[in-house]
Amino acid sequence: MNSNNKHHHPVQVHVKWGKEQITLTFSPDQGVKSLKSQLEQLTNVPADRMKLMPKSKGLWKGILKDDFDLSSIDYPSIQPPIQFLLMGSATQLTGPKTQTVFVEDLPPEEAARVAPEPSGLVNLGNTCYMNSVVQCLRAIPVLCHVSRNNRGGGGVDGGGGSFLLRALGQTFESLNRSTNAVSPMSLVVATKQAFPQFAQMGPHGQPMQQDAEEFFSGLLEHVARCTKGKDFVQDTFYRVGMNIHNDDELEGVDNVIDALFGIQMEETYTCDETMIDSSDSSSSTDVEPAVIRHDLHRKLVCNIQGGSDASSQTNVTHIMEGISLALNGKVEKRSEVLQRDAIWSRKQRIARLPPVLAVQFGRFYWKETPDSRDHAGVKCKVMKPVAFNATLDVYDFCCERIQKVLKKARDAAAKREEDEIAKKLKGEETSEEEEEGKSDKDHVMEETKEEGNVAAAGVDVSMGEEEEGKEGEEDDEEDLKAALAMSMAPDNDGAMDQTQREEEEEERVIVGPGLPKDFQGKYELFAVVTHKGRDADGGHYMGWVKAEHQSDDMKKISDSDDDNADWFVFDDDEVSPCKTEDVLKLKGGGDWHMSY
C-alpha cells in the first residue's frame, strides 16, 4: 500500500468490554502496542492478555495482531461509530505483602524498640556515676516493673524514697520511648533530695563527682523502704515471670530489693587462741565454742588489696580469689573462756542465694596520712588487674547445706550431658557392630553347615556337662544370699529411712527466692560499671550492658568456651555496640576503664 494512503489523524472509537462501553481516541500511526497500552490503563487488562476484534466493517479480520498496521485502514469510509470488541480479564491490584513502614512513622515506643541501639542519658554535670548505674539496673525486669508501678508508700524523709522511685520509673519509661538521649533531670533532683551529700558543689560552682557504688547502695536502700510486704514481693516477681512457690523462700525478707539482691550470710567465728591452748595436753584451757551468726547482704565484695587484714600479702589476680579473701579473715573480739580479747577466725558462707548477684570490686580505699598537716587521709584507687569471666560459679562460697542441693542439680546436669554423649557414641558403634555382626553371623553359619550336625551336637553335650556341674554351686549361693538378706533386713530398712529423710531435708532447703529448682549456682554476667581515671573523686563512669536480643550467628571467644555475645557500652548520651570479649578486658591494670 502506498504511504500516501495511510491515515495519520487521531481516530475516536468505542470499545465494548463486557458490560462496559469505553470511548477513547488513538493515533493509528503509533501502532497496536500504543492502543493496547491506552486500554490497559483504562481497564487494568494486561496487554499480553488482550484480544481485540472488530465490530464495524472495514477494519481487520479476526483477532488484532501486534504487527498489524492500523494506519492502513480507511477510517472515513467506515460508518460511525467505529467499534472494537475487547476480551480479557483485569488483574486485581494488590499492595505489597509486607507493608513498608519507616521508623520516622512509628510511635515513639515502637521506634525505640526497633532502634539498632538503645537510648543514652545526658550528663547534667558530673552525673556519669548515676547514668552508668541506671543503665545497668534497667536490664533487671523486677526493678523496672516495681519502679513503674510504685505504690507511693513507705517513703523516706517525707516521701523522698517514693519520689526517687517514681523518678527512676519515669527515666526508664523515657528511655523505652525515645530513640534520642534522655535528660534525667527529675532523677537528678530526686537523688539530691534523697542524698544531700550528692548535692555538693566544687570550688568553681560545678557539681562534684560522686561514687557510683554509694549511689547504687543508697538507691537500693530507698527502694527497699518503698516496696515492703511479702504479698507485694510475690506479686511483683509473678508479674515478671518469676514464681515464688511458698513463704519459706522469703524468710527474713520483707521487701523487693532484699528478695532480688539479698544474700543471706552464715558467719562462723572460731577462737584461734583457745584452739591452740587446747591442743596442748598439759593445758586446762577449754575450747571456745564457735559463734554462728546470720546476716543479710546485698552484694559480694571482691577484695583486691590482698586480704581482709593488713598483714596479708596475697596477690589477687582473679575475682574468685578476691571474693574468697573477703569471706575469710581474722578479727579481734572478746573470749569468754580467756576472759580477754583474742584473735578469732571469721568464715562467711552463703546460706541463701539471690536472683541477681552484685559484686563490688574494692577499687577505692582510704589511706591514712599521719605525716600530713591535717592528718585527714586520702582516698586512693587500686589499679591492679583483676580478671573475671562471663560466668561466676559461687558453689565454693556456699554453706554445706546449699552445696548439697546445688551438687544434686549439677550431678543431674552432668549425667544428662554424659547420656547425650553416650547416645551419640552408641549410635555410631551400633551401626558399625550391625555391619560386623551380619558378616560374622553369615561366616559362622557357613562353617556350621560345612562341619555338619555331629559337630553341633558335640558342642551342646559339652555345654550340658559344664552346666550340670554348676547347678549345685548356684543353688548354694542363692540360699546364702537369701539368708544374708533376711538377717540384714532391719538395717537396710533403717538405711533406706535415713536416705529418704536426707532427701526430704534437701528438698526443703531454700536455695533462693524465684530461683529454678535445677539452679546450679552459676551466674551469667549481664552488666558492668567501670571507672576510668586515677582520682577516686574524679574520673569517668560508664555502663556496659548485655544486649537483650542476640544475633543468630553468635561465635565463641577465641581460646574460650564463652559466647562472644552482643553488648552495649553507655558513655552517657553516646551508645556504642561491643562484644563480650571487649567487656572481659575491663579487668584493670592501666588508665583505661576497669570494672568497679
3D architecture notes:
- This protein is of the alpha+beta class and 596 residues long.
- It has helices spanning 31-43, 108-114, 128-137, 141-148, 160-177, 185-194, 212-226, 230-239, 256-261, 272-278, 319-327, 400-451, 453-487, 489-508, 580-583; strands at residues 11-17, 20-26, 51-54, 82-87, 263-271, 291-297, 300-302, 328-335, 340-352, 359-361, 364-367, 378-381, 391-393, 522-524, 527-532, 540-546, 566-571, 574-579, 594-595.
- It has a 5-stranded antiparallel β-sheet with strand order 18-17-16-15-19. Strands 2-1-4-3 form a 4-stranded mixed β-sheet, with helices on one face. The chain has a 4-stranded antiparallel β-sheet with strand order 6-5-9-8.
- A hairpin with a 7-residue loop joins strand 15 and strand 16.
- The longest helix has 52 residues, at 400-451.
Q: Order the strands across the largest sheet as they lie in space.
A: 18-17-16-15-19
Number of helical regions: 15
Strand content: 15-25%
Shape: elongated
Question: Average pLDDT, to the nearest integer?
Answer: 78
Largest sheet: 5 strands, antiparallel
- Multimeric state of these chains? single chain
| Structure classification | alpha+beta
How many strand elements? 19
What's the gyration radius in Å?
Answer: 42 Å
The low-pLDDT segments are 152-161, 307-311, 443-473
N-to-C terminal Cα separation, in Å? 96 Å
Relative helix content:
25-40%
